[in-house]
Amino acid sequence: MGRPSVQKQRKAEVLDAFLTCAAKYGIEGATLERIAAEAGLKRPLIRHHLGNRDDMVKALAEHVLAEIEALTGRMKEALVDYPSAKDFIDTLFSRESVTDPRLNIVFQSLAQASETYPGLRLELIRVMQKLYDMASEVMAQNYPRSSNADCQIVGQGIVGLYLTQDSLNPLNPPVEWAYSAYLAALRLANTLQAA
């Protein structure tokens, strides 16, 4: 019997190395040489596991979008029993919900590269729209006297505060920054009309 294939594991390792390099250098700066060095593999093996450049970017985008969708799904599940606006904000800003900082950075890099890779823009918007929709729905459930437009605006503002704070995590910023962003999100939610 032959040795079990490590193809799937190697592909995941190469994809993780690409994620790290894209977070450090952007999509275009994540060269085969850098990815190979990060993965500890020879350059031809990178192509073997991920394909040509377009295939590589597509695989990275699929990975990042799947991770963000999974996070959004887990957040939605967590809010089933506690669906208040404060619960939503607590879930976003809790220390336990800090995401892999590379995801947000690479999402931004993918957004910058979206003109070069057809179809990428729509996928990025689709995934981000799910998070915005969830925020708007939570606001609408908690503030039924407020207009849908106001709930969307506040939901987007709260998500924007979260994304900004999340993107700063690699800097290991002062704790006060996260707390101020959290309080700003609560204050923003409180601008809506209570039932």
UniProtKB/TrEMBL annotation:
InterPro entries linked: Homeodomain-like_sf, HTH_TetR
Every HTH tetR-type domain range: 8-68
Pfam families for this protein: TetR_N (PF00440)
Keywords: DNA-binding
SUPFAM superfamilies: Homeodomain-like (SSF46689)
DNA-binding region: 31-50
GO molecular function, one term: DNA binding
Protein name in the entry: HTH tetR-type domain-containing protein
